[in-house]
Amino acid sequence: MFPFDSSKKLSFSRYISDGDLLIVYERHDNMKAVKVSESGVLQNRFGVFKHSDWIGKPFGSKVFSNKGGFVYLLAPTAELWTLVLSHRTQILYIADISFIVMYLEIVPGCLVLESGTGSGSLTTSLARAIAPSGHVYTFDFHEQRAASAREDFERTGLSNLVTVGVRDIQGVGFPDEFLGRADSVFLDLPQPWLAIPSASKMLKQDGVLCSFSPCIEQAQKSCETLRSDFTDVRTFEVLLHTYEVREGNLRSWQDNDGGSMSLKSCKKRQRSTKGLENASSLTIMARRNGESRGHTGYLTFARLKCTL
Question: Among 34, 86, 88, 184, which one is least packed by beta carbons within 10 Å?
Answer without folding.
Answer: 86
